[in-house]
Amino acid sequence: MAQSRHCTGKVRKTMKTARLLAPFAVLLAVSACNQESKSGAASDAASGPVEAKPGVKLADGRLVLPAVKGNPAAAYFTLDNSGKGTVSLAAVSVAGAQKAEMHQTTGDTMASIDRADVDPGTVLRFEPGKMHVMVFGLDSKVAAGSSVELTLTFADGDKLSAPLKVEAAGGGMDAMGSMDHGAKH
Ligand SMILES: [Cu+2]
C-alpha cells in the first residue's frame, strides 16, 4: 500500500511541474510507476517460496518453452496447503504471456479446467502429463535461464505469486510441454 501512495504522489508532482505536457507526462509517470511496483514484487518472489495466503505455499515453479516457436509453453508448480481449510484455485496468469489456462491431461486428451481445489494437508502438483498450465502468446524474448512471474488467483480473490524458472524444450520429462502439446491446440 505504501507503494501506491508513493506512486500517486509522483503523478501529482508531474502534473504541477509540467502542466503543458500534462496528459503525456502523466501517462509516462503512471507506466514507469507500474513497472517499479512490478519489478519490486518479482524480486521479493525470487527470494524463495511465497506464503502470502496463510498456510499455502507455491513452490517448484518452472516454465518449459515450446519446441516449436509460436506453440504454447507449459508451466508447472506445486501448491502446498498446510492451512485448515480447502483452498480453491480459480485462475492463473504468467507475466509476459497473453493468456494462461489450467489444463488437465487424461490419456491422450486434455481439457481446460476452471477450478482446482486443494484440501487441507495436501499438495496439488502441476506436472508433465497431468495438470499443467498452458501458456499462450509468451513474449518471444523470454529465454531459458531467465524467470517469469506466475500469479495464482483463488476463488476468494486472494493472489499468490512466485517465479517460474524458464527451461528450454526437451530438458527432462516434458512430453506434454512441447510439440505434442502444441499440436493438440
Ligand atoms: Cu494443455
Give a quick rundown of the structure.
With 185 residues, this protein is α+β, with helices and mostly antiparallel strands. The protein has helices at residues 2-17, 22-45, 179-183, and strands at 56-64, 73-81, 87-94, 99-106, 109-113, 116-118, 122-126, 131-136, 147-154, 159-167. Helix 1 packs antiparallel against helix 2.
The level-1 CATH class of the largest domain = Mainly Beta
Average pLDDT metric: 77
Q: Helix- and strand-based class?
A: alpha+beta
- At CATH level 3, the topology of the largest domain is Immunoglobulin-like
Largest sheet: 10 strands, mixed
CATH architecture of the largest domain: Sandwich
Shape: globular
Hetero ligands = copper (II) ion
Low-pLDDT ranges? 1-46, 172-185
The total count of helices amounts to: 3
Q: Helicity, in percent? A: 10-25%
SSE succession:
HHEEEEEEEEEEH
Count of strand segments:
10
Number of domains: 2
CATH superfamily of the largest domain: PCu(A)C copper chaperone
- Rg: 19 Å
- Give the strand content: 35-45%
Calculate the terminal CA-CA distance, rounded to whole Å: 40 Å
